[in-house]
Amino acid sequence: MKDKRSVQFLQALLLAGLGGFVFGSSGVAQDQTGGIKVQDCVVRFAAEIQVPALETGRVAHVHVQANDAINVGQPIARLDDQTLLMRRKAAQTRLVAAQTDADSVIELQYAEAALKEANAEYKLNSEIQEKIGGSIARQRMRQLSLSVERGVLEVAQARQRIDHARVELDLRQAEVAMLDDQLKNLHVDSPLDGVVLSVDRSAGEWIEKGQPIATVAQIDRLHVHALIDSAKISPMTCRNLLVTVTWIDPSTNRERVLQGRVLSVDPQRLPGARFRLHAEIVNRTVPGHDSAWLLHPGTDVEMIVHPAPSTAQRAGDSSHR
Hints:
alpha+beta; CATH 2.40.50.100; Elongation Factor Tu (Ef-tu), domain 3; 3 domains; 9-stranded antiparallel sheet; 17 strands
């Protein structure tokens, strides 16, 4: 009697969490809302990414191991950075020198002062020549005129050198920025929240740019691929429908339930009037264990597709014809 009451109490708890489901003594969910049960299901990671090295070099340190939980942006590995750090130090020194040259206006100021002096001397001698004709030799006036022209060219040359210094400064800044980017690329970080499936390089090994250093998978979202009979639901009406997956947790022998949505339906039809449906399930962590997840790829699950009311009505009408 006590065991029977325990089973009834467990059924009541599960019923409260699932609403439209009831459970028999076997613990398998029985849908009471017109949902379509699908048992031909395969659970996979929502994404599996081979994380590549962004530069070529020696692996200096690996921060993770296979099966580690990982967060987006968390370090996976680091390549040796000693050579790049020395190159950056040299580039920074050249940048400081270029900044000094670009900021220096002494040469321009000197050329402008010399031009001002040449103009003043030429003007003074010209006024004297106008008042007292022939008092200044023609050769002297030509020399003064050439001094003014030379002063104009020296000013233009000084300004051109400043422009060149600024271009050199831009190049040195770009060089430092490029080295900073390369240094950043030596740090390989996770592109997603999930789990480390494999680590393909160890510390001390050489790796080429683009080669995978680790493989990570998204586990907070899982994809369920299922085969469905088109006589039960039209593939044209499946997209974005609510789905529920249920399974027996072997560690607790309890029924687990998660929900999600239909992502897409393959255009190809399979023998037996079936089609392949793809749904995304929102996974959850085990209460009290942030790194442990309820559902794992490969778990044997049953999925229920919940048609929209109008869709369910049409399916029911067609079954009576």
